[in-house]
Design brief:
The chain has 130 residues and is mostly helical.
Length: 130
């Protein structure tokens, strides 16, 4: 009875830890600036920009400009001829509480698993009969 209870408690704690860790991992992958986050793919963004620029041009300009290349080839050619943007390296701004929380949760989970394993592997004493 005691072993079954210990196994049930260990399973419940492991499940709670997995749910908590999954929630922290989701928060860690959230965009840093959610107000300006655009979840569209790069191809969708390019198509929207092309559609916006085409709607501003006249019909005569569209018929004069015929390009038989695929959109990906056009994007690759534009990127090859574009001026590279400078790389800005930002230093650390201090202590990161998100990373600390993830580390603390992982450490707590490992300690919980170790304690559960120890509780489950302990030998049960045989009942004494008198």
């Amino acid at each position: 009875m005691r072993t079954r209870l210990s196994a049930t408690i260990a399973l419940a704690l492991a499940f709670a830890l997995a749910c908590t860790t999954a929630g922290l991992a989701t928060a860690a992958w959230a965009p840093t600036n959610a107000n300006h986050f655009d979840g569209r793919s790069p191809d969708t963004k390019d198509a929207a920009a092309a559609h916006a620029s085409q709607s501003r041009t006249t019909a005569a300009a569209l018929t004069a400009r015929v390009d038989g290349r695929s959109p990906d080839t056009q994007d690759a050619a534009a990127a090859a001829h574009a001026t590279p943007s400078p790389v800005i390296i930002v230093g650390s701004t201090g202590f990161d509480w998100t990373d600390a929380g993830i580390g603390a949760t992982a450490g707590f989970g490992l300690a919980l698993i170790a304690a559960s394993a120890l509780a489950l592997t302990r030998g049960r004493e045989a009942p004494t009969t008198t």
